[in-house]
Amino acid sequence: MNREKIIIIDFGSQFTQLIARKVRELGAYSEIINFTKIKKLNKNQFIKGIILSGGPQTVTDKKTSKLDNKILNLKVPILGICYGHQILSKKLGGKVKTSKKREFGRAFLKSILKSPITKNFFITKKTSVWMSHQDIVSVIPKDFKRIASSTNSKFAIISNEIKKYYGIQFHPEVSHTKNGKILIKNFLFNICKIKRTWNAKQQKEILISNIKKKVQNHKVICALSGGVDSSVVALLLKKAIKNNLICIFINTGLLRKNEEKEVINTFKRKFKIKFIYVDASNIFLKKLKKISDPEIKRKIIGKLFIHLFEKYAKKIKNVKFLAQGTLYPDLIESKTVTGSPSSKIKSHHNVGGLPRRMKLNLIEPLKDLFKDEVRKLGIQLSLSKDILYRHPFPGPGLAIRIPGEVTEQKIKILQDADSIFINELKRTNYYSKIWQAYAALLPVKTVGVMGDSRTYEYICLLRAITSEDGMTADFFNFDKNFLQKISNKIINSVKGINRVVYDITSKPPSTIELE
Ligand code: XMP
């Protein structure tokens, strides 16, 4: 594409997308290419600079990847990170060896010489950075200087200021490196001199144009849940292929209060998207009857969802693609660093099994993006703040917030209590400080007293957590009066609940959901 860009060469690091994200965040356009594609780069591609990612290989291995000469012929600035630093050093005549002293985690970096790459990076002479390496550059190439060192990496930052080649042993792209973003910013704007032209509007246009190219005149179906990710995908597709997009929304009956009405209003009425609404609440309830095992519940819901989606999708003729709102963290979380599947705690409900079963091609326009980037895109697509900033909601819905058997009566009680809690969080601005909050209905009845009578009703559990990514979480520390007020409000308005408790466990050892 004819626009100024930074090329990120991927050597297989789990952080490559983080580098791209930082570059985007700073307002520069970037493209990631696999290291085997370096040969295809040429001077007519408006390349302003190159970043070499980290990676699991070792430069000391004879069979390791070689850095193609083509990269030097481009005569643009290069920044090598970790493995990228080592392969660049080796290529230019330096030496790399496996060190006896590994560096994993936090390390302290000492400034040795001034350089444009470290402008404003060291506030004092020492700063904290995040390392993850065993190999080190032991001899630097001719014409390079040492800019900074850590205890175990003498050459933690090196540079050749004439050629504008930089090598750094730590990871500036991860948040644990203090001021890491400043270092990347220096490389982009002071060294590569790329213009700040990248923003969510441009990103939207590129994504739409890519969808158009890929889909052409074919039809696409999309499972719409009303959550941020599937909503943004649906709106991008609507812009790209108009009425060739058909959304299917399955009401499992396990949604939050009035959720199905809101989804229909937004997508059918406001955005005029072709929309198939399937009210399957009775079918789900019937299948869940007398089932109380959490894993069996999850499996029943997941299977039924796929079955119904397939059934309704088959009624649409000539569908070639299935669109999904997969985000980048979904892809990294589904495998470990070595690529092996992580151990299974819960059977997550998603539509992952669909494309294979239905022999459809997948479109995942958000697969390189992070949640906050998707939200920015959503703003460009006129998605309401209510949807954009909504807390995550699990596929199996309220079923996993009603431990034990799920009944229509329990769902109704829970929907009412949850809506009181959430509305009050929104009214008091707590909502935006919390990563996820919900009410659950515990399968025990306890004695209470209301007026002069004895009651025997359910316990409502409230959960509110802070988190960065849902992998770990902490309970939110509410003001006591707030909790008291919510408890009163729920008990006074929801028949069926006479006791409210607040969950103060973190994850781990608990999980965010109850099942
Ligand atoms: P846990 O309970 O595993 O939840 O700590 C972590 C995050 O994942 C959500 N969650 C799900 N999301 N399908 C989803 O789409 C599922 O089956 C599912 N189970 C849990 C949960 O709400 C939290 O945000």
CATH architecture name of the largest domain: 3-Layer(aba) Sandwich
- The CATH class of the largest domain, by name, is Alpha Beta
State which percent range the strand residues make up: 15-25%
* Mean pLDDT rating: 92
Amino-to-carboxy terminus distance: 47 Å
**Major beta sheet summary:** 9 strands, mixed
Shape estimate: globular
Low-confidence stretches: 335-342
Strand order in the largest sheet: 2-1-3-4-9-8-7-5-6
User: Are any ligands bound, and if so which?
Assistant: xanthosine-5'-monophosphate
| Structural class determined from secondary elements | alpha/beta
Superfamily (CATH H level) name of the largest domain:
Class I glutamine amidotransferase (GATase) domain
Task: Look up the CATH topology of the largest domain.
Answer: Rossmann fold
Proportion of residues in helical segments: 25-40%
Number of domains: 3
**Distinct helical segment count:** 15
- The rounded Rg comes to 27 Å
Explain what you see.
With 515 residues, this protein is an alpha/beta fold. It folds into three domains: 5-191, Rossmann fold, CATH 3.40.50; 203-388, HUPs (Rossmann fold, 3-Layer(aba) Sandwich); 407-502, GMP Synthetase, Chain A, domain 3, CATH 3.30.300. Helices cover 32% and strands 25% of the residues. It is built from 15 helices and 18 strands. It has a nine-stranded mixed β-sheet with strand order 2-1-3-4-9-8-7-5-6, with helices on both faces. Strands 12-11-10-13-14 form a five-stranded parallel β-sheet, sandwiched between helices. Helix 5 crosses helix 12 and helix 6 (228-241) packs across helix 12 (371-380). The chain is globular, with a radius of gyration of 27 Å. Xanthosine-5'-monophosphate is lined by residues 346, 348-350, 392, 394-396, 436, 470, 507, 511-513.
